[in-house]
Write a structure and sequence with these properties.
The chain has about 180 residues and is α+β, with helices and mostly antiparallel strands. The chain has a single domain, classed as Pnp Oxidase, Chain A. It contains four helices and eleven strands, in the order E-E-E-H-E-E-E-E-E-H-E-E-H-H-E. It has helices at about 40-60, 115-120, 145-155, 160-165; strands at about 5-10, 10-15, 20-25, 70, 70-80, 85-95, 95, 100-105, 125-130, 135-140, 175-180. Strands 4, 5, 6, 7, 8, 9, 10 and 11 form an eight-stranded antiparallel sheet that branches. Strands 1-2-3 form a three-stranded antiparallel sheet, with no helix packed on it. Strand 4 and strand 5 form a beta hairpin. The longest helix has 21 residues, at about 40-60.
Length: about 180
């Protein structure tokens, strides 16, 4: 096996050998820059590939495959791309709150909001799929009081959300989906 070579690039360390390249992103910031995860292009490409495969498996099996992650329920959210106008679908964890569904726009603690949340801000109407059922929804950001009430339930469902909020300067939005 060839020796690993480490190449330092601001906010990214790449380990490479003759067969594989691994990119590790950093949560460190320069002065004046917001804190948070900054995924490399490779990480973003891999994440997009995983999302496409997850979405395909979920749809093909009506949620039997990919319907739960980390013991939490998963839905498919389809938004209208704010620039392209194309349908964009992502699998997301959700919490049921009465007749509403609650999502967390954590983006894994990244500096930027997830694209699906930016799309919902531009066009709040969307579609969700839970198991084999599809329905139309309308999204709104939870008020500060709603977020305060829901956050303990959300972090109990998926403890990673707490860590994501700790590593980013961004106030992670909690998104409420109402039936449309």
């Amino acid at each position: 096996m060839a020796a690993l070579k480490m190449v330092g690039i601001p906010k990214c360390i790449i380990f490479e050998n003759t067969h594989t390249v691994f990119a590790v992103t950093s949560t460190m910031t320069n002065l004046g820059q917001p804190a948070g995860r900054r995924p490399s292009k490779l990480t973003a490409a891999l994440q997009n590939a995983v999302i496409r495969v997850h979405t395909f498996l979920y749809r093909s099996s009506n949620g039997a495959i990919g319907g739960r992650i980390a013991n939490s329920p998963v839905l498919l959210l389809t938004t209208k791309g704010r620039r392209s106008g194309k349908d964009r679908t992502v699998p997301l964890l959700y919490l049921t709150d009465g007749n509403n569904l609650v999502l967390v726009a954590s983006n894994g603690g990244a500096v930027k909001h997830p694209t699906w949340w930016l799309n919902l801000q531009a066009t709040p109407e969307a579609w969700i799929q839970i198991k084999g059922l599809r329905r139309r929804v309308k999204a709104e950001q939870a008020s500060a009081a709603e977020k305060q009430r829901l956050w303990p339930e959300l972090t109990a469902m998926y403890p990673g959300y707490k860590r994501y909020q700790e590593i980013t300067d961004r106030d992670i939005p909690v998104v409420i989906l109402h039936s449309a």
